[in-house]
Amino acid sequence: MSSTPIDNAAIEARVKALLPAERQLYAERRPKARAMAERKGKGLFDNVPMHWMLDWPMPFPMVIEQASGVHLTDIDGNAVVDLCLGDTGAMFGHGPEPILEVLRNAGHRGLTTMLPSADAEIVGELLAARFGLPHWQIGATASDANRFAIRVARAVTGRRKILVFDGCYHGAVDDTLVDLVNGRTFSRASLLGQVVDLGETTIAIPFNDEEALRNALVSGEVACVLAEPVMTNCGMILPAPGFHDTLRRLTREHGTLLLIDETHTISTGLGGYTMLHGLEPDLMVMGKPIGGGVPVSVWGMSAEVAEGLDRARRARDSHGHSGIGTTLSGSALQLACLRASLEKVMTSGTYATMAARTDIIEAGLIKAIGAQGLPWHVTRVGARLEVVFSSEPVRNAAEAREAASSVIEEGLHLSLLNRGFLLTPFHNMILVSPALAEAQAQALVAAYGEILARFCQAGEAA
Ligand SMILES: Cc1ncc(COP(=O)(O)O)c(C=O)c1O
Q1: 288 lines ligand 1 (CB under 6 A)
Q2: Which strands make up the sheet holding 71-74, listed edge to edge?
Q3: Category of 46 on φ-ψ map: left (φ > 0), alpha (ψ -120 to 50) or beta
């Protein structure tokens, strides 16, 4: 145990000095990936299929040869244990066997017809039983599902505005890409090609702020509050005791619908945070791992919202585009994967394994942080863990931003990667798949402990 308390500024200084060697090691082990990154061809923009793959805290992206269970192998032959899991898309492990089985057979039955397949009825029943809401629709991504659910909320309530919490991320959904700056809501400064002032129809308030919520809803203009039950895209911010009760009570009082986005908090356990904590949303969205890694999302509605949607559809003058749905949504392939996922992958046994492994990692990280006397803590929602660089839990995005350090994040990320563990980029999230073995959980804890000790060794970095 260090005798004098260490602060984040001192750790940042040490990490800065350690980073060049970690970057060099990463690069030395990946000559093929480096050559690919340096080739400027005519095809993919910057040789990646999606531009943000360049934003990871790696000198250049590792290029994946194979992903299976919890293992990634890159084209240079490096093997790593995956704790990012495609930022939740592969939360149940890469290629769960029931999904592979569907994929082996699905093509022969037809991939997409723009008509329901025989799985539709059973999938609807499974979703209703698992997540509590009676009516469901299928999308391709969680971004899509959020967009459609917002449109439904506006159609049903006849209101223009929506409310989100500062620091949120609900996908590439224009209405939600806002920041709270000096008490006002603005389009997020980083957006590309943004021409509409999103602050005109979206209100952002701090998470856990009951007074701000009350003040925002009182005008009666807000169609829905869109919220993750635990904020997971700005570090990890837990709801204060009673906050969800207040959120539900105030939204009901003001005729505002409650739209819960469980895309990440589906890590909580069977039925998501909603079922485990008795939330009562009017609308609910999930994507990413729900189809076992195949592009599927779902959005559910209460009976009242579904009736309102019916009324709104009937009241239209024309039968043209509704703005809800995409051509490949609700396809036979998606329904088959959803069914296999709900019946055979997302089971109580799976969640029990995830929880047991996460227990090991949580206890180990707390011990490792304590051993160095670091002013940090660990937050958790089921199989999702976040190391936060503050001694006290953060209550909102402003506090989360204050606690964040991109330097320490990069240091942790690269040091762990060089020891065979892949973290989620842009924060310190560890996601635990059921494929992670107990020994791997223990090895991660040991590696984390060694890295923290290195970060805290006075003089080493000089
Ligand atoms: C809470 C939440 N909702 C929705 C999304 C959007 O998911 P997708 O990019 O798969 O559309 C994300 C993506 O990170 C998310 O974190």
Answers
A1: yes
A2: 64-68, 71-74, 79-82, 421-422
A3: left
Q: Which one-letter DSSP state was computed for residue 238?
A: P
Which residues neighbour 422 within 8 Å (Cβ) at sequence distance 6 or greater?
A: 72, 80, 81, 82, 83, 84, 416
147 lines ligand 1 (CB under 6 A): no
**Going by CA atoms, what residue is nearest to atom 4 of ligand 1?**
170
Instruction: Give Cα separations from 359 to 80, 158, 238, 289 (angstroms).
Output: 21, 46, 18, 21
Q: How far is CA 176 from CA 28, 112, 169, 200, in A?
A: 41, 30, 7, 12
Task: Look up tokens 């925002």; give the residue.
Answer: 216
Segment-wise mean pLDDT, segments of 10 residues, the chain, 462 residues: 74 97 98 93 89 94 98 98 98 98 90 94 98 98 98 98 98 97 97 97 98 98 98 96 98 98 98 98 98 97 98 87 95 97 98 98 98 96 97 96 96 98 92 98 98 83 40
Determine the Cα–Cα distance for residues 395 and 397; give it in Å rounded to an integer.
7
For the whole model, what pTM was predicted?
A: 0.96
Q: How far does Cα 303 stand from its chain's mean position?
A: 28
- CB 171 near ligand 1, within 6 Å: yes
3-state secondary structure 402-447: HHCCHHHHHHHHHHHHHCCEECCCCCCEEECCCCCCHHHHHHHHHH
| Side-chain half-sphere CA neighbours of 308 within 13 A | 18
Of residues 257, 292, 299, the one with CA closest to residue 135: 299
